[in-house]
Amino acid sequence: MTGQAGTLLRVGLLGHGSIAAAHVEALRAIDRGEVVLRSVMGRLAEPTAAFAAEHGFARSTTQLDAILDDPQIDAVIVCSPSDAHAEQTAGALRAGKHVLCEIPLATSLSDVDRLIALAAALLSGAGRNPPPGSRGRAAPASRCLTLHVSAA
Q1: DSSP 3-state helix, strand, coil percentages of the chain (rounded to 5)?
Q2: Residue 140 contacts by C-beta under 8 Å, 6 or more apart in sequence?
Q3: Would residue 72 count as lying in a domain?
Q4: Residue 2: pLDDT band by 50, 70, 90 thresholds?
Q5: Sign of the alpha-carbon dihedral angle for 83, 26, 17, 71
Q6: Is residue 3 part of a domain?
Q7: Which CATH number does the domain housing residue 63 bear?
Q8: HEC assignment per residue over 28-76
Q9: In principle, which of 20, 42, 104, 118 could form an S-S bond with 48, CB 3.0–4.6 Å?
């Protein structure tokens, strides 16, 4: 997956709650035949399979490694319960996947620091920077705050 027009983005989704459904809707809204909903992972097989069927995923699993080890998955969206975000994000980064982690990235500052260091080490020299995936970044209040903090 190179990110160029006409190439496929094959997605694995970690979690299947309401925010996961919102991500699927967003992928469909931007899809021009370039997004493949490859696999969804959840803690329990039955509801995970139901989500996969409802949203058009090729398969479902309860095993994180089934997604991280799948060469047919380019990108992972972490929508699992918050306490799993840091470890799942780290695993996806180590597996060479593109990662979008729903907020919060982690539940402790030390885990955030660890993820930043891991991403920097893995992406150094690759010409990529991992952006924060927060829709609030573009909100007027957030932009104003950023300007004030930057000016300080």
Answers
A1: 50, 15, 35
A2: none
A3: yes
A4: very low
A5: negative
A6: no
A7: 3.40.50.720
A8: HHHCCCCEEEEEEECCCHHHHHHHHHHHCCCEEECCHHHHHCCCCCCEE
A9: 42
Token pair 């980064």 is found at: 93
Category of 129 on φ-ψ map: left (φ > 0), alpha (ψ -120 to 50) or beta: beta
Query: Does the residue 88 lie in any domain?
Result: yes
Domain count across the chain: 1
> Residue 81 falls within a domain, yes or no?
yes
Which residues span the domain enclosing 79? Answer: 9-151
- Span between the terminal Cα atoms of the chain, in Å: 40
Structure tokens at 109: 């500052």
Q: Which residue has the tokens 């309860």?
A: 62
**Upstream peptide bond of 81 is cis (omega within 30 degrees of 0):** no
- Read off the pTM: 0.82
Give the H/E segment covering residue 26: helix 18-30
Confidence of residue 22 (pLDDT cuts 50, 70, 90): very high
> pLDDT by residue (tens digit) across 95-138?
999 999 998 999 999 999 999 999 888 877 665 555 556 656 55
Contacts of residue 139, defined as CB under 8 A and 6 or more positions apart, other chains included, come to: none
